[in-house]
Each structure stands twice: as structure tokens, then as C-alpha cells.
């Protein structure tokens, strides 16, 4: 395919001639700069349903040229040339995308060239900047490109202070207040989602900490750990077990248990914040525990029996939600720990097999 440019009779009229070996061109595309681009009607009709409808319409004959004429105006002449060439052979260079990506996106939308629209949406999205993001967003909305709209919205959200200083944003404020409102609403929704995610992460961390506390309470009351433990395990001639894997949580609970055992405010009925916290932890354990008959955690059975009698405790929605989420966090924690133990066992077995094989080779 060869492209040449000629001038007719000193008039600023440029004709682009595309020579094909097999089929003669039977249609001309006229651009804004009065450029004439020869093309094949069959190729254009196959590539674009809009062009197909235009070509199939009956033509009014005024004499002169026998070729049908289609006007594509409002975009640069070179962009139209690239567009027509793409319809003939679907290829697009990076330089062409850089120079005419926005124009090709508009043409591909108007003439319903899906594969070109997809390429332009991706190409323009990769090249969008703070300076042109408002213009690209407006075009993306007109061209029904939701992916590109979302990318522009996210860029505006992340660089809003910089975007506010651009000419595009100032023009938008003066001429399209509805789009400005949509952008501000998107930013507000994005900030709300971010706050919800942060709150959700904090809640999950709290549930995991409470789950770890429940495990530590069971561990302290059944096995004992460093400072306190069940009376049956205490022996003056023997040392207590060493620090556990969750030592920081376990140590804090041990101090709380020791305080709970000797607190005079709790005994006198004056109330103590630390004792109330310990009672809440014991009540939470009782709500989760499924072995209250054999459980060695203090007050577990008493809280179970009290909960069955007290309707207010049963109907406390917030407390029930807390119990369910802590129980879920505990189950997830135990599952991850079991997987970790299995992987450690497998690694240990593989290491032992490797050592045994090496020994058999050398000895």
C-alpha cells in the first residue's frame, strides 16, 4: 500500500491516493482540511455498521465523479487517515496512538468500530495525565467507555488538589456543574469506603485479639503459664511452664487474673474497671465455650446457667454479634495454625528424608 499527496491547480486541496493491486477504490472520504482519502466501500461496510448504512443509502446523482463521497469532519485530517487505514488493515503504532488516540476513540465510538474502541480506550487510559484527565473524562462519558471513566475518576481522586489548578477543571466548573457534582460524589463515596475498610480492619484486629485472649485464658487455666495456673499443676519443687507463643497477650491476662483474685474493690462491691474487664472476658469465654461441664476456666458454668435464665443476655444483639465474630476469628485462627503445623511437619519430614538419602550415599 502506497500513500502519496498531490495538489490540484494551486488550490489547497490534498488528495491521498491509496493504490491496491486487486480492487479499485470506489469511495472518497473528505476531511475537515478538504483532504480526499480513497477507500473501498466493501471494506468500510464490513468494518463499520454505521458506514455500511451510509454506503447503502441511495445516492443522488449530480453528475461529475462517479465515486460516492462521505464526509468525516471535526477531527484532524491525519487522524481520519489513520482511522481509514485501520479499517483496511487493523494496525496502530504507538506514535499514532500518542498523537491521535483521543480522536480515534471518538471516531471508533461514532462509527461503532469495537476493536478499535477497545484499543483506544486502553491506549488513552495508559497516557492520561493530571493535565488532560478532565478532558479525557468528558470524552469517555460521551463515548460510553466506563473503564476509562473509572480510571479518570480514580486519578482525579488521588490528585484532586493538583487537578483543581488545571484549566480543564476550571472550564468544567463553569460549563458542566453536573459532571463536577458527579466527581465530588465519587470522591466522597471513595473516602467513605476507605473509612469503612479501615474500621473493618480495626474490628477484625480486635476480634483476633479477643480470640487470642480466649485461647490464652484456656491455656492459663488448664496448663499454666509462667506466673499463674491451675492449683493442681502448682508444685513447690517444680517450675511452671515457660512463656507461650502469645506471651504478650498471655502475660497481660496473667496480671489481670492476679489482680482479679486479690482486688478489694471487687469484694467490697465498689467496682473496679480491671475487674469488670476480666468479668467480660470470662463471660465471652463462656459464650464461646462448648465444654462448660469439663471447662476449668473460672465462672464458665455459672455464666452459662445465668445466660440461659436471663432473657436480656440472650436477646442482647450486640453481644451476640461479638460472640459470633470472635468465634469465627477463633475458628479461622485455629485453621491457619493447623495448616502451619502441617506444613512444618512436611518440611521436617522432607529434611529428614534428604539427610537420610545423603547418609546412604556417603556411607
From TrEMBL:
Keywords: Cytoplasm, Metal-binding, Nucleus, Ubl conjugation pathway, Zinc, Zinc-finger. GO terms for molecular function: calmodulin binding; zinc ion binding. SUPFAM superfamilies: POZ domain, TAZ domain. It is found in: Cytoplasm; Nucleus. Residues 25-96 form the BTB domain. One of its GO terms (biological process) is response to auxin. PROSITE patterns: BTB. GO terms for cellular component: cytoplasm; nucleus. Pathway: Protein modification; protein ubiquitination. This is BTB domain-containing protein. It comes from Brassica campestris.
Amino acid at each position: 500500500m502506497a500513500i502519496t499527496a498531490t495538489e490540484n491547480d494551486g488550490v489547497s486541496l490534498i488528495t491521498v491516493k491509496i493504490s491496491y493491486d486487486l480492487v479499485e477504490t470506489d469511495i472518497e472520504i473528505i476531511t475537515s482540511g478538504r483532504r480526499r482519502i480513497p477507500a473501498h466501500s466493501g471494506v468500510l461496510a464490513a468494518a463499520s455498521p454505521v458506514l455500511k448504512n451510509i454506503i447503502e443509502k441511495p445516492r443522488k446523482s449530480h453528475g461529475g465523479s462517479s465515486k460516492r463521497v462521505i464526509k468525516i469532519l471535526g477531527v484532524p485530517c491525519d487522524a481520519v487517515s489513520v482511522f481509514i487505514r485501520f479499517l483496511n488493515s487493523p494496525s496502530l503504532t504507538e506514535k499514532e496512538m500518542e498523537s491521535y488516540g483521543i480522536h480515534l476513540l471518538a471516531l471508533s465510538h461514532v462509527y461503532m468500530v469495537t476493536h478499535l474502541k477497545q484499543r483506544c480506550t486502553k491506549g488513552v487510559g495508559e497516557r492520561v495525565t493530571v493535565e488532560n484527565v478532565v478532558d479525557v473524562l468528558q470524552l469517555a462519558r460521551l463515548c460510553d467507555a466506563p473503564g476509562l471513566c473509572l480510571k479518570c475518576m480514580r486519578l482525579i481522586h488521588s490528585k484532586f488538589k493538583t487537578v483543581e489548578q488545571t484549566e480543564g477543571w476550571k472550564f468544567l466548573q463553569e460549563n458542566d456543574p453536573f459532571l463536577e457534582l458527579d466527581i465530588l460524589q465519587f470522591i466522597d463515596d471513595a473516602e467513605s469506603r476507605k473509612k469503612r475498610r479501615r474500621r473493618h480492619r480495626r474490628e477484625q484486629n480486635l476480634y483476633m485479639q479477643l480470640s487470642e485472649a480466649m485461647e490464652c485464658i484456656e491455656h492459663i487455666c488448664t496448663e499454666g503459664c509462667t506466673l499463674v495456673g491451675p492449683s493442681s499443676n502448682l508444685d513447690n519443687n517444680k517450675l511452671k511452664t515457660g512463656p507461650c507463643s502469645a506471651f504478650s497477650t498471655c502475660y497481660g491476662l496473667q496480671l489481670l487474673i492476679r489482680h482479679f483474685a486479690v482486688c478489694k474493690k471487687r469484694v467490697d462491691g465498689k467496682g473496679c474497671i480491671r475487674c469488670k474487664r476480666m468479668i467480660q472476658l470470662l463471660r465471652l469465654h463462656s459464650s464461646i465455650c462448648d465444654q462448660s461441664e469439663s471447662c476449668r476456666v473460672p465462672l464458665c458454668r455459672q455464666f452459662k446457667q445465668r445466660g440461659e435464665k436471663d432473657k436480656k443476655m440472650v436477646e442482647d444483639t450486640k453481644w451476640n454479634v461479638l460472640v459470633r465474630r470472635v468465634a469465627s476469628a477463633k475458628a479461622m485462627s485455629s485453621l491457619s495454625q493447623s495448616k502451619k503445623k502441617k506444613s512444618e511437619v512436611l518440611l521436617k519430614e522432607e529434611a529428614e528424608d534428604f539427610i537420610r538419602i545423603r547418609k546412604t550415599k556417603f556411607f
